[in-house]
Amino acid sequence: MKNFVKEESPSCTTSGPCRLNKDDAVSQTLSKFFPPVRYKEMGTKWVKHVSAKQATPIEMTHVKQEVDRVLKVRCSRKAPLCVIREDVLSDLIREILRQVTIDCPEQGLLLRRILDHNEMEFNAYETLLRFTDAFVGRKWAEWQHWKADRARQISELEDTKRILEFQAAELKHKVDQLEKKNQEMKIKWDAARMEEIKYYKKTGEHLRAQMDASVLPNRKAAPQFPSGMMMIRDSGAVQKAGKNQLRYLKSAKLSV
């Protein structure tokens, strides 16, 4: 509520200390909180002052309904921070400050301090919210980048895993083939070894039988000599039989 008064030059002829009554204190406090607005219209200078008249309950009810209607029309929200609600309620709180100041200027000063502190707190929360949105957006972008990078790494590792599994299967197949081949070669080598042993055993038995057959008839057909002469003849026969046996063994070995 504002009063329109024609601007006049100030005229104050009092000297010495000036004592203000309640009305003057209210007027000065209201002028401090709500500075007068000066403007010019049709060549006349006007000053718009705030009204020092207390509002009636009917007017306050009308103001409350008007505030609710404006908040609903402008689609304000209660949380987290709403600039529309701040704009609408700032006019309402200014009206409350005017009425409190009219009742008691000292309470008006205290309420003004509270409102200034509340405004500073609101600005701090608004700044924090703005930087929080930027921080959350940056972290969201970093998380999306990290997610895409991890998905790419997982895909690469899965491809590497499949390649290594395929290589491991190939190596296992080669190992199985080599073990099978070595086992077959071992069986063949053992069989050849056994055949060779059997052959040498049979050859040894055959040679032993031939040696016995060649030595025993000579012993049976040996003539009767005196004891000394027979020993000499027997030793010669033994040497001759031994030489024959060696020749036979050499020839048998060469034939083998």
UniProtKB/TrEMBL annotation:
* Keyword list, A-Z: Coiled coil
**Family annotation (Pfam families):** Ax_dynein_light
| Superkingdom, taxonomy of origin | Eukaryota
This protein's GO CC annotations: axoneme
**GO molecular function list:** dynein heavy chain binding
Query: Which chain positions lie within coiled-coil regions?
Result: 154-195
InterPro entries in the record: Axonemal_dynein_light_chain
- Name the chain's protein: Axonemal dynein light chain
Source organism per entry reads Opisthorchis viverrini (Southeast Asian liver fluke)
